[in-house]
TrEMBL record:
The gene is nrfD. It is found in: Cell membrane. InterPro entries: Electron_transfer_protein (IPR052049), NrfD-like (IPR005614). This is Polysulfide reductase NrfD. One of its GO terms (cellular component) is plasma membrane. Keywords: Cell membrane, Membrane, Transmembrane, Transmembrane helix. The keyword Membrane applies.
Length: 324
């Protein structure tokens, strides 16, 4: 009596039929376990990092005290909340500190862990000056001294997550590391500028809010260019399917591009034309849309990468030159 051997089918995430070569009926690469928690972390630390860069610039402006304070506090919030959510994603949450047991320059995960730790500590120092500076002038001096290192590590926080994804064997993430990093970095700047613009308007500092909104629009335009470069490289390698098809494609097009870039541009344009109370409300809607759009873009990239890992043709195309 011969035993019947069942060959495992490809995962349902594969949206197209694949009748070519496989590895015993399985995908060649394994999809990651990254979910919305990882997407939230990428967005939170990206906004936090860009906020420190903005704080470093505002701290040198004669009337930038209010913006500096809010940017530093926003950076502290993002550097604290983001890792807390990420820890919930770990399989052994109580051992998150094990990532700091080694320092390995060749490991994006190791370098990212240390970068996050440094950034969080520096953000705490800069925020300390805002909270305790009036009572203890020394705290203010420490805060100002920590601002430049905080801005440097903050710039890294906006792009290192893209480098971490690109260092994996997932075909879609590994195919375009440089434009993907530019996409994540510009989205971080757009999100931070939008969040701070909302805070500045709430504080009555409309002038600086408008400058931040202009910065957000410029960063959004740069993000659109970076996204176009990323998608072109993926298309050249035959890996762009997951970002164009199904629910993930809709999330990328509707959330990442329409809500994140088109809506803010239209809202700002209409707001400046009509003016009045409605004209003042539309920039706030634009800022919210840009933050949500940046989050949708990152989540779409994560989903698309996982779908790409489940497609055997993507794995083979990423490891050899294929004529299309």
């Amino acid at each position: 009596m011969s035993a019947r051997i069942e060959r495992p089918a490809l995962p349902p995430a594969v949206q197209q039929e694949w009748r070519g070569e496989t590895y015993h009926g399985r995908p060649v690469t394994k999809a990651s376990s990254f979910d919305w928690k990882v997407s939230f972390y990428i967005v939170a630390v990206g906004i936090a990092g860009a906020s420190q860069v903005i704080a470093a610039i505002a701290n040198r402006q004669p009337e930038g005290a209010g913006l500096t304070r809010r940017a530093r506090l926003l950076a502290l919030a993002g550097s604290a909340i983001g890792p807390l959510v990420l820890v919930q994603h770990l399989k052994t949450r109580s051992r998150w500190y094990n990532m700091l047991r080694i320092f390995r320059p060749t490991s994006p995960m190791s370098m990212g862990s240390w970068l996050l730790t440094l950034f969080g500590g520096l953000s705490a120092l800069t925020a300390m000056g805002e909270v305790l500076g009036r009572r203890w002038p020394f705290a203010r001096r420490v805060s100002d001294a920590a601002q430049l290192p905080a801005a440097v590590t903050g710039a890294g926080m906006g792009v290192y997550t893209a480098g971490l994804l690109a260092s994996t064997s997932t075909p879609l993430w590994a195919a375009a590391p440089a434009p993907l990093a530019a996409q994540f970095g510009t989205a971080s700047v757009a999100g931070a500028a939008s969040a701070l613009a909302l805070l500045q308007r709430a504080a009555g500092e409309v002038g600086s809010a408008r400058r931040l909104e202009t910065l957000a629009l410029l960063a959004g335009a740069a993000e659109l260019l970076a996204a176009g470069t990323t998608e072109k490289r993926l298309a050249d390698k035959g890996l762009d399917g997951p970002l164009r098809e199904g629910k993930t494609g809709a999330l990328n097009a509707t959330g990442g591009k329409a809500i994140g870039i088109a809506v803010p541009l239209v809202a700002h344009g209409i707001g400046r034309v009509i003016g009045g109370r409605a004209g003042a409300l539309l920039p706030e809607i634009a800022s919210f849309a840009m933050i949500l759009g940046g989050a949708a873009m990152r989540h779409a990239v994560l989903r698309a990468g996982n779908e790409s890992a489940c497609r055997p043709d993507h794995a083979f195309r990423s490891t050899q030159r294929v004529r299309r």
